[in-house]
Amino acid sequence: MRRTLGAPGAVLLAALAAAGRSDAPSGPTPVASVQVTAPTLAFAVGESVQATATTSDARAVKLTGRAVTGASLNVMVATVTPAGLVTGVSSGAVTIEAASEGKRASSR
Asked: Which domain holds residue 40?
């Protein structure tokens, strides 16, 4: 005895329609926070230190491969390269800032 469960292709179409839906967010997990660190921000004129930025998601899981920009908030005291190298220009206090996907953090 042969039984037909529906119109031919109906099950396939329903499966394809369900496969196109997802409750999971699409794309990469967004950055929820940025942390910037440097071994020291007390250094001599002409001396350089490497600053590091870490991006994390809302669950504090570290994210890799995210674009991060760095900047000195006082370029008369120190400069920051795109790679995060901080170089002293003159004496004084400086704050280094890192940003990724609209989230910012600073280090003094």
From this structure: 29-107
